[in-house]
Amino acid sequence: MGFKKFEMKTGIEQFSLNDKVVVITGATGVLGAALSVAVAQAGAKVAVLGRNEKRAAERVEAIIETGGEAMAVLADVLDVRQMEAARDKILTAWGTVDGLVNGAGGNMPGATVSPDQDVFDFSIEDTRRAVDLNLFGTVIPTKVFGKVMAEQGRGTIVNISSVAAQRPLTRVLGYAMAKKSVESFTQWMAVELGMRYNGKLRINAIAPGVFLTEQNRSLLLNEDGSMTDRARKFINNTPFQRFGVPEELTGTLIYLLSDASKFVNGETVLVDGGFNAYSGV
Ligand SMILES: NC(=O)c1ccc[n+]([C@@H]2O[C@H](COP(=O)([O-])OP(=O)(O)OC[C@H]3O[C@@H](n4cnc5c(N)ncnc54)[C@H](O)[C@@H]3O)[C@@H](O)[C@H]2O)c1
Fold first, then answer.
1. What's the chain's average pLDDT?
2. Are the beta carbons of 259 and 8 closer than 8 angstroms?
3. How many domains, the chain?
4. Considering the entire predicted model, what is its pTM?
5. Which residues line ligand 1 (CB under 6 A)?
């Protein structure tokens, strides 16, 4: 009795993004730089979406230098009109959108409470801005580009969450609430897309641990380059005893964007050196 023939490719080719168009928001950022180059190396044309013209041009240049194809698209993820204009620009140039990575996000200074502050001294306004950026900065591009994918009958979306969603980190209130909501949105949308589009449209998330970037540099490093107490706490609670490097997110992203994860929907994959699994004892 012979084995039934596989119905799909099961080798390395299932990770290919050849002939796909992938939009990456926040591609102008530190993690976005590594993510956009990796997605291009996997074969996709990359729409580098951000607000900073110079940085977007640098990212496009870096992709072209490694033999990939990319285009800068200047837009604010919180502005529906700008997202629609971005969609039109990409469709005019490349005719399709097959993937979306919601990478724009970050913390707001007043949405945190430092140890010398009263716990109630956080700013409501900054807390709202943190929720806006991380949650609605994910919801709006998903609504605009997800509809294109639905009309095409195929597509994959990957949201960037954080370990702060799994266990809210001390001090960072707005960010923790926002990322938790990103994961709730991921699950809700995954169920709706799964039921309505017959498995052809999927949405998942990646929750990075701590990666040293511009956004958290002042939290993690002193002016002389030594680690802050907070950085040491992170390292001591990470079984790998180090921060992640941006390239370590890329394999998971390619997996989630490609056919390699064809039956994966509504998941959050932690890339955190074991931080979330560690009890601290
Ligand atoms: N660095 C970390 O350790 C870490 C850990 C977990 C999760 N994350 C998440 O990863 C993602 C990328 O983080 P990063 O460390 O590269 O930060 P970053 O600040 O370097 O990159 C974020 C990018 O998003 C852009 N952006 C911000 N608001 C925008 C808006 N309204 N419209 C369009 N673009 C906008 C910024 O200009 C920046 O280029 C974020 O969602 C962040 O929350 C980071």
1. 95
2. yes
3. 1
4. 0.96
5. 25-26, 28-32, 50-52, 76-78, 103-106, 133, 137, 160, 162, 208, 210-211, 213-216
